[in-house]
Amino acid sequence: MLARELAEPYALVDLDTDALEAARILAADRLPGLVVTDQDGSPYAILPASQVVRFVIPEYVREDPSLARVLSERAADEIVRRLAGNKVRDLLPDKPHQLPVLNGDDTVIELAAAMARMRSPLVAVLEDGRITGVVTAARLLEFGCGAA
User: Which residue among 63, 101, 110, 121 sits deepest, i.e. has the most Cβ atoms within 10 Å of its Cβ?
Assistant: First the structure.
């Protein structure tokens, strides 16, 4: 089987997408991350859902998780508001998670090897320089386990 046969439509965001909108996409579709493109639509990076969570949790809570227990639900609402006014580019770490990119005619083994080598839950599939779909680790495992 080829990468193009496993690739599925997937949410894409660009560097200037509103951060709150990106978080809503992640939550609504329960995605492990988003494919981030640059201004010309080329694959740029992965924005893992965990990175969005990291962005909204104050550093003092990350450093001392016991402080989380004393924060109220109201404080939790305020934390999510930290996304307001930010863009996807603001959520990315200084060294973004590289997005594996394969061609549609690459094999499943090439796809799995790229995913494993880069420790990525997503692989973008390109045809003629455009992202035509994404293969998630879950999709790859589904295929490998005979559930496809």
Answer: 121
